[in-house]
Amino acid sequence: DAEITQSPRHKITETGRQVTLACHQTWNHNNMFWYRQDLGHGLRLIHYSYGVHDTNKGEVSDGYSVSRSNTEDLPLTLESAASSQTSVYFCASSERLQGGLADTQYFGPGTRLTVL
Amino acid sequence: QKEVEQNSGPLSVPEGAIASLNCTYSDRVSQSFFWYRQYSGKSPELIMSIYSNGDKEDGRFTAQLNKASQYVSLLIRDSQPSDSATYLCAVKTGGTSYGKLTFGQGTILTVHP
After folding, report:
1. Which stretches of chain B sit within 8 Å of chain A by CB?
2. Which regions of B1-113 does DSSP assign to beta strands (E)?
3. Higher confidence at residue B12 or residue A99?
């Protein structure tokens, strides 16, 4: 069955370290997204990609970067981790629809990141 | 004004009752609308998508869309304790960003026996 996976599921790191969160999907979806979820803020979009070599900034992109070298993977990098980046991170993917419509986004299981 | 707003919870209903969850959005050209359910500690999972005005039913769930009034709602009939979760409304806002969704802050629903 097609799926979307994230690794690691839990990560503790120190302030200033570089951290990379992996996201891998076997749906063969063109669209991939990274969100963070914090209490009181819901899901906030960090970065997204509509295809290989395409990346775009979301509403909370400062301090994060992504690259898309193939269809299946969109790793999220925290360049220099800060305590404010302690959060739960979700990766999602969706297919591209015509006519300006959006398809369902399917979410990975999430990564809980703690920055000390 | 937030782009997508949900009725502030938490919402508590007795088992067997109808739970009504509401969501308003600010972008008049929005075309795609989704309801997700998220259990504590889990990832969001799709309950319903709706693209046209009117009602869409799936089992105990009914999504209602009114583009003129810019709101979308989710009704859960015969609510069960297993329906206790956070419900997220998501809307495709904007014109050309054909995959990007904006999420509301979520409504916590508790169904008590």
Report:
1. 31-32, 34, 42-46, 49, 51, 88, 90, 92, 95-96, 98-106
2. 4-6, 11-14, 19-25, 33-38, 45-50, 54-58, 61-66, 71-76, 85-91, 102-103, 107-112
3. B12
